[in-house]
Amino acid sequence: MSTAFSADDTTTQGGVLSASAQDAFAAELSRLSASSGLGNRDKLVRLLGLLLCVAGGVVVLLAYQGATGASDLRDQMELLVLAIFGLLLGVVGIGIHVAISMQRFLRFWLLRLVHEQRDLAGGR
């Protein structure tokens, strides 16, 4: 699809698209059927990350509750290991959530970069 752009349509200083280039970018996104929503796999992985984070918090709270009632130091150490495992679950869950969020951001950033480069090359 070849689109002719005028000199006013090129990117302005600072890398911001002009109004007509933004309209062309929005039209290109709709032509590619790129939605702002997440795909099924991305939704499931993001949900898994959030569930791991919540499960880690629950494990930490249960370990704390058990450690406050334990009088023997060995029992408290077992519960400390369980609490560290809960913290690890939470960190992994947050990492998964951040990774999916960054993936979504970078996907649209790459689409915009390709569109800007095509705009600068004369609409080819």
How many beta strands in the DSSP annotation? 0
What structural class do the secondary elements suggest? mainly alpha
Mean pLDDT: 80
Rounded to the nearest angstrom, the radius of gyration is: 24 Å
Tell me the β content: under 5%
Sheet having the most strands: none
How many helical stretches? 3
Shape estimate: rod-shaped
> End-to-end span in angstroms?
8 Å
Q: Helices and strands, in N-to-C order?
A: HHH
Helix content: over 70%
Stretches where pLDDT is under 50 for at least 5 consecutive residues are 1-14
How would you sum up this structure in a few lines?
With 124 residues, the chain is mostly helical. The chain is built from 3 helices and no strands. The N and C termini lie close together (8 Å).
What features would you highlight for this structure?
single chain; 124 residues; mainly alpha
Can you offer a commentary on this structure?
By secondary structure, the chain is mostly helical. It has a domain at 38-113. Helix content is 73%, strand content 0%. The protein is built from 3 helices and no strands. The model is unreliable at 1-14 (pLDDT under 50).
